[in-house]
Specification:
Layout lengths: L2 H26 L3 H5 L1 H19 L2 H5 L3 H21 L3 H29 L1
């Protein structure tokens, strides 16, 4: 297995983990009255979809193993890092931040190794 394939699997795993942590963080940050009401819980899901929309744009590129998509995803993770640090609090914030850092590194490694393989 090539180094870029291992990095791609890391990117995909961390990408899915980030989406899961964003969902859990959005739901756990909702007030208790919101969690009990089904209509408002749907609104919480819609808020998660809105927060995750920029990440969804990278799905086609990641599935094609495009190093351009991974490169741009790394830039977007920096934006998410700043926003989550500024707005977040609690254990889910730290889970999201650590996942973002690992995702950034995995994207950079994948981009570097994929470009080197294409040049060789």
């Amino acid at each position: 297995m090539l180094k870029s394939d291992k990095a791609w699997w890391a990117v995909i795993s961390l990408y899915v983990a980030l989406l899961a942590f964003l969902l859990i963080g959005t739901y756990s940050g909702a007030p208790e009255t919101v969690k009990a009401d089904d209509d408002i819980a749907g609104a919480t899901l819609m808020f998660w979809l809105l927060k995750s929309l920029p990440l969804f744009l990278f799905i086609p590129g990641l599935l094609k193993k495009s190093h351009y998509a991974a490169s741009w995803l790394s830039y977007v993770t920096m934006l998410y890092f700043v926003v989550i640090i500024a707005m977040g609090a609690g254990i889910w914030m730290w889970a999201q931040v650590s996942t973002l850092i690992l995702l950034f590194v995995a994207c950079m490694l994948f981009t570097r190794w994929k470009k080197a393989e294409e040049q060789a």
